[in-house]
Amino acid sequence: MRSFSLILTALALAHSHLSASTIDAEIFLKKAVTEVAHIADASENSSALAAKVRPVLVNVISFELMTRRAVGLGWKKFNEAQIKEATDLFATLIIRTYSSKFTPGEFPEITYKPAILVAPERIEIPTRILYRGSQYEVIYRQEKSVDRRITDVVIEGVSLIATYRTQLDAQFKQGGAPAVIGALKKAVAVRQ
Amino acid sequence: MKNTKLELSVGLFVVLGIAAIIYLTIQVGTGSMLSGDTYLIESRFANAGGLHSGSTVLLAGVTVGRVEGIRMESADYSAIVTLRVLSSLRLPTDSMASIKTTGLIGDKFVSLSPGADDTYLKSGSRITLTESAVDLESLIGKMAFGTIEKEKAQQDTK
Prior knowledge:
heterodimer; A: alpha+beta; 6-stranded antiparallel β-sheet; globular; B: alpha/beta; 8 strands
């Protein structure tokens, strides 16, 4: 009887821990999205938005892990200076790309679905976003190893990381780390 | 007596031949012919539409495995796809699995893309960094007919 109640307590604790982690992830995401939406609303154009939103996004998105995953296998061949440069360029590229999609004064309507613990360290938060008349299914992937920061965004089934990995891996195979950095520099310059 | 023996041998040969053809047909049909040792890993997809047991698993365009089975995870209604891959293949833990299509309307297959982690997936591990099957019909529908919200917004502005 005693062992049965112990098992029950352990199960209850595990469940509450699991629920707490997914709820924390949801709160973290909602807070971050609200903060970004307010900055977007107060910005006069996309380049101003990109500059203002960067300090916030650095705390919300793990650009280090994102860049590492986007490069894939070739990342192991990068030296410290190349890692820093690639991460910085990739962050700039992502921020500029998505800043250009926002129109000041237009708030996206976001419906959050319950977060899913897909692995002990990984949480997915599915959302439905209604923005300027169009509806999008967006999944935010967060990881505990980087303080629940976002590590990937999946829009209509297409992963940001997978999309960039296909391109950057091809660059790496052509010319190693310098080719990846060169391609990122070009992409950033185009979005200036 | 000699004739009976000969007929028996021919009959046995024909039966074995037919059995071999049936076996090969089934193996090729389910796509389970993989040379060498294999191990099983799982992938979690939000949508595994179009994928089936025997579908090919590719890495860099090379066949490295087959889909062993697909089942539903009742907790979150996701699809768990079991992949049988060659044991010579060492996949970093941050590897990604995507469901792709051969051409526009071709067969679905699983494409693996290795990550940069120093740890590797073991037999029974699960890939959670995945890209589900893109619903082309839905995307074409959205492009062709727009969305309800868009039309509603247009009506509101009139």
